[in-house]
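HOLO CASE FILE
Compound: iron/sulfur cluster
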Amino acid sequence: MNYLNAKSAPAREDRLKANIAFGGTCADIKNRIKEGCFSGKGCLNLADRRFTQTQGCQFTLSLAILNTLRNAVIIMHAPIGCGACSINNVGVNQTLKRLRDPLAEGVIWLSTNLDEADVITGGERKLREAVLFADREFRPETIIVANGCVPALIGDDIDSILADLDAQTAASIVPIHCEGFKTKVMATAYDAVYHGILKKYVKKPDRREYIAEPDIEKIKEQYRISRNVNVLNVGSMSRQDELELQRLLNAIGLNVTFIPCYAEPEDFEYSLESSLNVSICGTHDDYFVEHLKEKYNIPFLVDTIPIGRKNTDRWILKIAEHFGFEEEARRLIELENKLLDESLEPFRRTLSGKSAFLAGGEVRIIATAEILQDLGMKVIGFKAHHFDQFIEPIFDALENIDDVLIDVATNQPFEQSNLLNRLKPDVLIAHVGGNNIAAKHGIPILPLFGPSYNYMGYSGVYEVARRLNMVVRNYQFNKKLSQYTRLPFKKEWYQKDPFTYIKNPDAV
Ligand code: SF4
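Model generated. Tokens follow.
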């Protein structure tokens, strides 16, 4: 894979044949993966809906990652509304940045505020002014320019302007081409961000040139690199998640560097001094690790996500195999499983037999279902933002899942509401920020992730069980909501098949 000569990353519909419209069972999805579902009859690629209620935008998801970077100013080259999501990021990101560096700035973001007149005259003047202002006012190490649909549609020559400004600013300038209209698969944002990072941030650190060889310092340096792994964190991880994964990898003798979220520019340079890139989530990272392998020959691991006991066992073992540390890993896994099993017992008594529906990113929901099965719960439905090949290994940890319904939909709350009404789960575990309609169904809801909570590793299993136990026992607020508010869709919709508006993929 090498797309770095291109101006921007390709859309995931093209590169991965990812899908955003499907309704069926997990067995259907698994069979399509086995049969090479991304081509030929029954192809899910480019499947669509006759009616669509809401969809994701890669610009907003790109900002969710870019806003985590330290020593950077973010310029949104777009109308002001495109960046509204950044308001949500400000508080949390400042806190999480300061957990890594107490002196870190919060999120600094500017908008070029493009309007109707700029659509006619062009947005180039505003972009130049914003970049020079950011450099003068904030003195950042990096200025990141993310562009929305408007400058792409009116043809602003962003790369030429930024190349020209690069010579005039103390900060280095990183263009991120993430216009929303380019893709229906929101996860293209990960590639758009990594594309910019790979082109501007990732380069061999200078300091290694100064180490004389052969000498003891050089040997020590090589030893350190041979024990170091980059763990590619995701924006939905908490600091507790990172500390748990660090604890587990330290226990088998490895050091850990976390990138890209909350990293600063030089962290990407030193990330080349590692022996293995370890993905938390293939959907998030494949573009980055493939390019690092191609360009710098650093091997990578893209497999499962360490959420749930079996997934965590597998994630640790796969990493350990690369270093020949299987024995250490097996000892650790045995001990952790024993401790975890004992600690889950009280929660199993409350939660066993309860049914659950999970909604959110494909990798996270399937992995989190493993925790529920571990607690004796019954998984009765999924709604995944999208679907691609990285879902495959995550199914391995689940049992009796073939008949479970899965809806592939980025947002589309009307489909989820129909499914919840039909399946009547005892609890919903869902992506944060869009559960207002679901709450009106009167069911308890546990967020699928959260910046203050631990979901990953063995301690994550315990924490999910503990919090699930609390929300299932007390969800008075949602009960009252269902009694005193109405669902926003007509009764007739609830009589219809939830997948009515998905076009038959075979006919695509
Ligand atoms: S789709 Fe385009 S116009 Fe809409 S928020 Fe995304 S970048 Fe802005």
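CASE NOTES: The radius of gyration is 23 Å. The CA atoms of residues 131 and 380 lie 50 Å apart.
CLOSED: yes
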